[in-house]
Amino acid sequence: MEIWLLVSITLLLLMAVGIALVYSGSVRFKNALTCLCFSALLLPLSYGLWLLLGERIIFGELDSLLKVPESYSGDVNPSSFYLFQYLFSYISLLVLWGSTLERVSMRFYALFSSLWLLVVYYPVSRWLLNDSGWLAEIGALDFAGGFTVHVTSGFSALVLANCVGRRLDYFQLINKFNQPLIFLGTIFILIGWFGFNAGSSIVFNESSVVAFENTFAAGVVSLGVWCLLDFIHTPNRVSMIGISLGLVSGLVAITPAAGFVSLNYSLIIGFASGIVCNYASRYMHKVFKVDDTVDVFPSHGVGAVVGAVATGILVLDSGESVHLRPNLIASAVVATYSMFATWILVKILRSFMSIRISKKAEEEGSDVRIFGENILNLK
Q1: CA 39 from centroid of its chain's CA atoms
Q2: Which stretch of DSSP H or E encloses residue 204?
Q3: Which domains occur in the chain, in start order?
Q4: Nearest CA among 187, 161, 39, 105 for reference residue 356
Q5: Do 262 and 241 touch, CB atoms closer than 8 A?
Q6: In the chain, alpha helices (H)
Q7: For residue 263, what are the contacts with CB-CB under 8 A and spacing of at least 6?
Q8: What is the mean pLDDT of residues 323-327?
Q9: How many Å apart are CA 238 and CA 231, to the nearest integer?
Q10: CB count, 10 Å around CB of 363?
């Protein structure tokens, strides 16, 4: 059974590559390399923090943080289990960063990422993943990280994007660097999500198979619904980024329920997420003018809440929806806490450092200014 967890870890790494490719394809040529490089640089930063504190805060006893905690899974090697859990924290950072592409300073985001993990991700994960976590004890149900990964990063992204501010040319037509990169990255994300959801069974069993099938079904249905709405509201305008967001919204929404519901229910969740997340994206851009670069909040934050509510309604115990109230409480608490903590962190860091790159660097592009080269050598 150990092999299933190792396969899932590999799929999660592929998912991280997919996210980086989508980011690189979604920005301008002058910032595409930065998306790839910084995604790689977050690995040692987040892994070092995980080894020092992450696994101990989430799974250990609070009065013995310096001791290596025992795995609560009981069926797999603790090292594999903790590496699997670490990748969830890394992917959360990648998702969060997507809201501020092309304008946030790397120095700020490196420090912010470390603090965000300590203040937001690790505590919330303890509330849900640890047997003594208070949200787990009240009955909050989450199969594969809907709360810990997507509600935290999605709602934090809304506040972070608003605090950082819009790109200088936000109101101008912004051309994506590379549409094929967005497509390739989206396919990698889909493949990686099988490890994300089906791998959360920890060992290969019936739940793994159910989660695998539900993941694909919800994602594909959401993709279709999103693109249909795009076609209705903007005739003949189905975009590659819309295809990506539609798929991701469904994948996020099915995450809390992946191993718990039937295929028919997963289709319903995918349908609902495609509608709700599409309109959330339109509302965010047209009404609030929030420059969430790759729509992290509508696809991850809103999608995760849709999935959490659907899980509470559709997963029954003795014929009753006993998880609805706990999941509503968890959604409200995690979303509110993530937003408030993010706002406080940005406010503190802003008091002694610049959170954005300079105006000149934003105009010229961060690739040359930071890394001294472009993503393509055209000479």
Answers
A1: 13
A2: none
A3: 2-371 (1.10.3430.10)
A4: 105
A5: no
A6: 2-26, 32-49, 55-59, 78-97, 106-116, 122-129, 134-137, 152-164, 179-197, 206-233, 240-254, 263-283, 296, 303-314, 324-350, 359-364, 366
A7: 213, 214, 217
A8: 94
A9: 6
A10: 12
Tokens encoding 305: 């809440």
The DSSP secondary structure of 258-314, one letter per residue, reads TTTS-HHHHHHHHHHHHHHHHHHHHHIIIII----TT-HIIIIIIHHHHHHHHHHHH
Q: What is the pLDDT of residues 238-288, one digit of tens each?
A: 889 999 999 999 999 999 999 999 999 999 999 999 999 999 999 888 878
Give dist(CA 357, CA 355) in Å, integer.
7
Which pairs from 43-48 meet CB under 8 Å and 24+ separation? 43/90, 45/110, 45/113, 45/114, 46/86, 46/89, 46/90, 46/93, 46/113, 46/117, 47/86, 47/90
Task: Report the alpha-carbon angle 364-368-369, nearest 5.
Answer: 75
Instruction: Please tell me the predicted confidence (pLDDT) of residue 131.
Output: 80
For residues 166-189, give the mean pLDDT.
88
Which residue's structure tokens are 């797999």?
A: 76
One-letter identity of residue 12: L
Q: How far apart are CA 324 and CA 244, in angstroms?
A: 29
Query: 257: closest CA among 211, 195, 305, 291?
Result: 211
> Got the DSSP string for 23-75?
HHHHS-GGGHHHHHHHHHHHHHHHHHHIIIIIHHHHHS-TT-TTSPPPPSSSS
- The CA R_g of the chain, rounded to the nearest whole Å, is 20
